[in-house]
Amino acid sequence: MGQGQSKPAPEPIVFTSDVSVRFNENLIRKLEANTHASSSASTAPSTVEHAHAAAAPAAEPQQQPQVDPAELEAAIQAEVSRRVAEELEHRRGVEGSRADNREHLDATAAQREADELLHRLGRISLPTPEPNLECVAAQDALAACFKANARRPLDCWREVDQFKGALKKVQREFMETASML
């Protein structure tokens, strides 16, 4: 029990077609024009020529050999894949070089700015800030609130806002004194 499949495996269904594949003449001309423009030095017959041979009118079956539709489809798919790969490679190269240039310029500007800041800070001896009494008092009030409301820390939102305001004030004062030096 449970060792075998409960349903038999379905048999594969294979569809075959006796209808020949025809392509629009405009498509064939565009493919030929693109092939001749991109690789005019190629001497081997291309898949486009195979497609053109297969798409010839049915009135001339004696002149053109019959091409297997599956073979034709595979040849067209290979040609499309090759062209898509070429286009992707070309676009990646163009976009990659643009991105590299932007990154290089951004990195150069950032490095220059960092060097400038280090040079300025090297000349300046920043004073060691003394603890701000307002900030220390807000910190103590916040700690006491958290201890009193261990199970409900969100009740300490007023103390948190007071502490954040005190910190911003101290940071602002420090930056003003540092920028004056």
Description:
This protein is an all-alpha fold. 65% of the residues lie in helices and 0% in strands. It contains five helices and no strands. The radius of gyration is 38 Å and the shape is elongated. The chain starts with 24 loop residues before the first helix and ends with a helix.
Number of helices: 5
Shape: elongated
Order of helices and strands: HHHHH
How would you characterize the largest beta sheet?
none
Mean pLDDT: 75
Distance between the termini: 86 Å
Strand tally, please?
0
| Uncertain runs | 58-62
Instruction: Note the quaternary state here.
Output: single chain
Secondary-structure class: mainly alpha
In short:
The protein has 181 residues and is mostly helical. It has helices at residues 25-38, 47-54, 69-123, 133-148, 157-180. The protein is built from five helices and no strands.
How would the blueprint of this fold be written?
Blueprint: H1 25-38, H2 47-54, H3 69-123, H4 133-148, H5 157-180
Helix pairs in contact: 1-2, 2-3, 4-5
List key phrases describing it.
0% strand; mainly alpha
